[in-house]
Write a structure and sequence with these properties.
With 377 residues, the protein is mainly α. It is built from 17 helices and two strands. A hairpin with a 2-residue loop joins β1 and β2 (350-351).
Length: 377
């Protein structure tokens, strides 16, 4: 779990600096490079889930996908033309996206105790942060920040370590599902309860892009210095790790999935309300904890709900369906939607942040109402 998210955290936060700086890509080109992973997540997890449920051990898929991913990252690190880099990063994203649901599938197949599942999930945000701090230290020591490709080299090295580590995973063979597991997973959408969960998950995944795309600029516009923004946003990862360890299992056990998911969605709603208020600065900084709390109580709790709600023989495919909805369709459409909203409420170089953040606040409030009224848990 740690290595899976360390690979992602090594390049995702900082690759844009290389694209916009040394490579002189436009903002639109940079956006398309970053769109490769959401695009890949729409279909790739469904394919890997099908393979893991029917034909091949999940750990072997993880080994192969990460080794191929490492090679593609090394190729990407030396590319300077947009078209070539887009193709390479898309191919890389296809293989990396295939691994995301399988890490969860291996966990759920071999660890049934909910408390221990939380202790494993906790390492995702910790590793993401450590990868960033390691890269910062590397750049201070070896002065590699100027070209910016060191993040891709680091991600490649971590991918090789991940592949080697997967050789030590317990055997997780296919459950021997008959027919087509992906299609069986999709039949779960006929259940109103699961359909509501998936729709709200897709919406929540999309609205997260308002947080990721807007927060840094918003903070600086409210008077928080640029050098303090990364530390402020890192509060979310700290709270995410702590909430995964201390709160996740307790909330699910005490409140059930319905109210755990609702509280998670409400945390995002409160975050956007703070952003709409746009003051005081201290509250904006503290509100970063709400994103970490929301991610645990909605995204991770939702993955656990999907595992509990699905038949054993198609659980990999159901996890893949959740990732396709949130990290795939939701993240891609959310990126486009957030960009449009930002352009509408932008005048020259100034953003009307209250108007911008009112949009996700209203949509998230509607999602909370849908959970309360329609989701049975």
């Amino acid at each position: 779990m740690a290595l899976e998210y360390a690979v992602w955290g090594a390049w995702m936060p900082v690759l844009a600096a290389r694209l916009l700086g040394p490579l002189r890509f436009s903002g639109k080109q940079t956006g398309w490079i970053y769109a490769t992973l959401p695009l890949a997540c729409i279909i790739s997890p469904l394919i890997s889930g099908q393979i893991a449920d029917k034909w091949l051990n999940a750990e072997w898929i993880l080994v192969g996908a990460h080794l191929i991913g490492a090679a593609l990252l090394l190729i990407a690190a030396v590319q300077t033309r947009f078209a070539v880099l887009f193709v390479v990063m898309f191919l890389y994203s296809v293989f990396y996206a295939a691994t995301l649901p399988l890490v969860n599938a291996v966990l759920f197949a071999n660890v049934t105790d909910a408390a221990w599942q939380g202790k494993v999930f906790m390492w995702a945000p910790i590793a993401w942060a450590i990868a960033g701090y390691f890269l910062t230290g590397w750049r201070w020591t070896f002065k590699t920040a100027e070209k910016g490709r060191d993040c891709l080299f680091l991600a490649a090295a971590l991918s090789v370590i991940m592949a080697a580590s997967c050789l030590a995973l317990p055997s997780t063979p296919p459950a021997g599902a008959g027919g087509t597991p992906v299609l069986k997973a999709m039949t779960m959408l006929q259940n109103t309860n699961f359909l509501v969960f998936m729709i709200v998950s897709l919406v929540a995944g999309g609205l997260m892009q308002f947080y990721f795309l807007c927060s840094a600029r918003f903070m600086m516009d409210t008077g928080i210095t640029g050098r303090n923004v990364p530390a402020a946003m890192a509060i979310a990862q700290v709270v995410q790790a702590a909430a995964t360890y201390y709160l996740l299992n307790k909330f699910i056990g005490s409140f059930g999935f319905k109210w755990t998911l609702t509280i998670g969605a409400a945390a995002w709603f409160l975050l956007y309300l703070v952003y709409v208020a746009s003051k005081p600065r201290a509250l904006i900084v503290v509100s970063q904890s709400l994103h970490g709390l929301a991610y645990v109580l909605f995204i991770i709790a939702g993955q656990i709900f999907a595992n509990v709600a699905s038949p054993p023989e198609i659980r990999s495919s159901v996890q893949a369906l959740v990732f396709a909805a949130t990290t795939g369709v939701g993240l891609f459409l959310g990126t486009q939607f957030a960009g449009v909203v930002m352009d509408i409420f932008r005048k020259e170089d100034r953003f009307n942040w209250r108007a911008i953040f009112s949009v996700p606040a209203v949509i998230m409030f509607a999602s909370i109402i849908a959970l309360v009224m329609l989701f049975k848990g």
